[in-house]
């Protein structure tokens, strides 16, 4: 079974332009993500899916394998699909390029044990413990059935609403995803639905078309860098880690 890790790294982030190149303790963010993924030894290859010569220059400077993809992809899944047209693999594991603290423990649970022919998606979530993250629209929340383990909905608002009970935990999407080729082909061949347009969450295209989404819980302190505040938080954590290793 061949498994390829793909790190989408787009320069023109709306909330944090030039995000892949933001400095974290002397190295660009994409360097941290790539080396964290490479160190897991879970993949046949690790590829940065980039769209800008400035990111290309950094990849070449630090010897990071990359594929230059089109700059006008509407979402990261379409960018991964372009990679899947160039690299044949049984599964494509997407690790978002804004997850510099990602660990093997976050990635391994999303990798399936066998190949799948029909569209297949597997993802990761963690329990939210920070109230600020719960109300942050940049952090995607999940509703997952306890009976089936399937994802019922994804939202930027805190869901479900605690009217009948307080005995539950909010679940946050973690930027690690597994697609097979059939899922990627399905996604790019179907139009955006109403819920996807409203929430601005790509994965709702699968749910709106009856494709199951599965998520595995991971124990993680990984932080997706969506804002300048997230970046400062990650810099502080990384600096402490480096200091402890000295």
UniProtKB/TrEMBL annotation:
CDD domains cross-referenced by the UniProt entry: CMP-KDO-Synthetase
Gene Ontology biological process: lipopolysaccharide biosynthetic process
Assigned GO CC terms: cytosol
E.C. number(s) listed in UniProt: 2.7.7.38
Keywords carried by this UniProt record: Lipopolysaccharide biosynthesis, Nucleotidyltransferase, Transferase
Residue ranges that the Swiss-Prot or TrEMBL entry lists as coiled coil: none
Keyword Transferase applies: yes
InterPro entries: Cytidylyl_trans, KdsB, Nucleotide-diphossugar_trans
Highest taxon of the lineage: Bacteria
GO molecular function: 3-deoxy-manno-octulosonate cytidylyltransferase activity
Enzyme class at the top of the EC tree: transferase
Protein name: 3-deoxy-manno-octulosonate cytidylyltransferase
Organism for this UniProt entry: Treponema rectale
Lineage: Bacteria, Pseudomonadati, Spirochaetota, Spirochaetia, Spirochaetales
């Amino acid at each position: 079974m061949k498994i390829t890790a793909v790190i989408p790294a787009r320069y023109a982030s709306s909330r944090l332009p030039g995000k892949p190149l933001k400095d974290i303790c002397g190295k660009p963010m994409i360097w941290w993500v790539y080396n964290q993924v490479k160190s897991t030894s879970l993949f046949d290859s690790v590829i940065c899916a980039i769209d800008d010569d400035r990111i290309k220059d950094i990849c070449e400077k630090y010897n990071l394998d990359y594929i230059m993809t089109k700059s006008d992809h509407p979402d990261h899944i379409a960018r991964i699909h372009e990679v899947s047209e160039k690299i044949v693999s049984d599964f494509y594991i997407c690790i978002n390029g804004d997850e510099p603290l990602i660990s093997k423990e976050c990635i391994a649970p999303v990798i399936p044990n066998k190949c799948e022919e029909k569209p297949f998606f597997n993802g990761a979530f963690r329990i939210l413990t920070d109230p600020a993250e719960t109300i942050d629209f940049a952090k995607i929340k999940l509703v997952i059935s306890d009976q089936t383990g399937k994802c019922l909905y994804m939202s930027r608002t805190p869901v479900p609403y605690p009217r009948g009970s307080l005995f539950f935990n909010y679940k946050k999407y973690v930027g690690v995803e597994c697609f097979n080729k059939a899922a990627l082909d399905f996604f790019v061949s179907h139009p955006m639905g109403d819920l996807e347009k409203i929430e601005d969450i790509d994965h709702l295209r699968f749910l709106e078309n009856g494709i199951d989404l599965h998520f595995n819980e991971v124990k993680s302190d990984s932080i997706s860098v969506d804002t300048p505040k997230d970046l400062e938080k990650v810099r502080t954590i990384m600096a402490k880690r480096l200091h402890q290793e000295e």
